[in-house]
Amino acid sequence: RCVLKELESLGKALYGAKLIAQRFQVRNCSHHKDPVSGSACLLSMIEEGNPHHFFIATQDQDLANKVKKKAGVPLLFIIQNTMVLDKPSPKSLAFVQKLQTDQLVPEHQKQSIVQLKEKEGLAKQEGEKRRKRKRAGGPNPLSCLKKKKKKTQEGQEPSAEKKKRRKRKQNRVKAETVQLVQKNEEE
């Protein structure tokens, strides 16, 4: 109701937004006689842990920042004609994690565990921090490479022979083609 009153007071500029807001179900708030601003009304409705599981849809950054500070309130906004559900705030994530850990181990059991640890001397001391030891690694893999052989006069001779062989192969191929051509001419 407070949002509708605010839209009426803003005049013709937001008449379309007022028509759209009137189509939705109007939730009763505690400000019947003296309406407050729309953002203040929305914030008052989600207090005390959002018992009615409301979603807040707004383009107002101030309101969005205030909503993010409360746990368990989903936030919707519009980007280029698309409705976007904002990621959970850090407050909401911390609240959910706390709920999960409380469900795993009840509070009285946590207290008894702490007492038993203190009794046995297993409680963590704040000044005590463990550091990871640096372990010796293996040798540098680049230093383990095989050494290259140096070129000598003996090493150069086989390469000369290979060149000769290549020439011979090329000559043979040419000789074979000449012979085939001669046979074809005779036939």
Architecture overview:
The chain is mainly alpha-helical and 187 residues long. Among the domains are: 1-45, no CATH class; 48-120, no CATH class. It has helices at residues 2-10, 15-23, 38-45, 61-68, 90-104, 107-120, 153-186; strands at residues 56-57, 75-79, 82-85. Strands 1-2-3 form a three-stranded mixed β-sheet, with helices on one face. Helix 1 runs antiparallel to helix 2 (15-23). The mean pLDDT is 78. Keywords: Nucleus, Ribosome biogenesis, rRNA processing. Involved in rRNA-processing and ribosome biogenesis. One of its GO terms (biological process) is rRNA processing.
Task: Draw up the topology in text.
Layout lengths: L1 H9 L4 H9 L14 H8 L10 E2 L3 H8 L6 E5 L2 E4 L4 H15 L2 H14 L32 H34 L1
Parallel strand pairs: 1-2
Antiparallel strand pairs: 2-3
Helix pairs in contact: 1-2
Features:
three-stranded mixed sheet; 187 residues; flat; single chain; mainly alpha
SSE topology string: HHHEHEEHHH
Low-confidence stretches: none
Average pLDDT figure: 78
Q: Give me the number of helical elements.
A: 7
What is the end-to-end distance? Answer: 109 Å
Question: For the report, how would you describe the main beta sheet?
Answer: 3 strands, mixed
Record field, number of beta strands: 3
- Spatially, the strands of the biggest sheet line up as 1-2-3
Q: Which structural class matches the secondary elements?
A: mainly alpha
Could you say which overall geometry the principal axes of the C-alpha atoms support?
A: flat
Share of helical residues: 40-55%
**Radius of gyration, taken over Cα atoms and rounded to an integer in Å:** 42 Å
Strand content: 5-15%
